[in-house]
Amino acid sequence: MSSLLAxxxxxxxxxxxxxxxxxxxxxxxxxxxxxxVAEAITRIVIGQMLSRQAAQSIYGRVEQKKKxxxxxxxxxxxxxxxxxxxxxxxxxxxxxxxxERYDRNxxxxxxxxxxxxxxxxxKVSENWGLSTWSADILSIFYFGLPxxxxxxxxxxxxxxxxxxxxxFENQPxxxxxxxPYRTYISLYxxxxxxxxxxxx
Length: 200
What we know:
Layout: H1 3-13, H2 18-24, H3 37-47, H4 52-69, H5 79-84, H6 89-104, H7 106-110, H8 117-125, H9 132-141, H10 154-166, H11 182-194
Helix pairs in contact: 3-6, 8-9, 10-11
């Protein structure tokens, strides 16, 4: 799917943001085909409610400990090891419980890659400690689905609040206008913050 085609569609859908899209350039759809779903979930859980820098730091320590122990995946660390690396007890429990289910039937969870996003949301949310936000991040960054908008993401909420106040005087921001490219508008909203494009 062309990022340029997505950018053109978004510029038509949100004329007030078109100059911002032009300044930021095209965004590419992420797609990590190689990482196992259980490892992706571990990274996502660690990233919940943390800045990207903090999450990367903690996951880096977890990954290093995994290598030291000679384990296949970070989810094989015990709860105490995860907590010592900076993972909260609740998140460590989520990682361990999901990891145990994954190890019993990995093919079931790897098959999530073939599901539609609404089905992924349903499957992910059945697991303790995981949410629709977890499913959205999995769908965007690990499965590369093009039409996902994480309504519960704190950064996106903050950007939407800003553009509603500063740019969208008459019609509030509606992510559905971005269909079938809602992932791309999500990536632009994150990029606005990453590059400090607005004073938010």
